[in-house]
Amino acid sequence: MPSQPSRDLEVFPNPHPARDYTIRIRIPEFTCLCPKTGQPDFAELTLEYVADKLCVELKALKNYVWSFRDEGAFHEAVTNRILGDLVDAVQPRFMRLTADFNVRGGIYTAVVAEHRAEGWTPPPAVTLP
């Protein structure tokens, strides 16, 4: 198989470090296992961040997300773990990870975790007519 699951998150230099801009990545096929039943849990992850000096490389991110497929994890724990690993690798100005889990037992779960670098404030929002 050409690629394998991996916890190695590769990064590359931000091509525009002087500008605050949002990078939004949609990951519609996240899976892990329920730690109670061992059954699969499915989620769509949305990663949004304002890079500082580094950006996450997408193939490495895909392999990283794949590495959770056979791991049991509570929704809250896995969302915060992924955010923590990404923050450690990328050191962004701001990062938000939203995990929208599919229904389990009649209940939908969405977990939103955020990181804000010390001293960083977002630019004011622009509202266009």
Mean pLDDT: 96
The backbone outline, from C-alpha atoms, is globular
The ordered string of helix (H) and strand (E) elements is EEEEHHEE
Helix content: 10-25%
Computed Rg: 16 Å
Number of helices: 2
Biggest sheet strand order reads 2-3-5-6
User: How far is the N terminus from the C terminus?
Assistant: 51 Å
Summing up helix and strand content along with how strands pair, one would put the structural category as alpha+beta
List unreliable stretches of 5+ residues: none
Tell me the total number of β-strands: 6
What fraction of the residues are assigned to beta strands by DSSP?
A: 35-45%
Largest sheet: 4 strands, antiparallel
Describe the structure.
With 129 residues, the chain is of the alpha+beta class. It is built from 2 helices and 6 strands, in the order ββββααββ. A 4-stranded antiparallel sheet has the order 2-3-5-6, covered by helices on one side. The protein has a two-stranded antiparallel ribbon with strand order 1-4. A hairpin with a 2-residue loop joins strand 5 and strand 6 (107-116). The longest helix is centred in the middle third of the chain and has 16 residues, at 75-90. 18% of the residues are buried.
Summarize it.
This protein is α+β, with helices and mostly antiparallel strands. The protein has two helices and six strands; from the N terminus they run ββββααββ. The longest helix is centred in the middle third of the chain and has 16 residues.
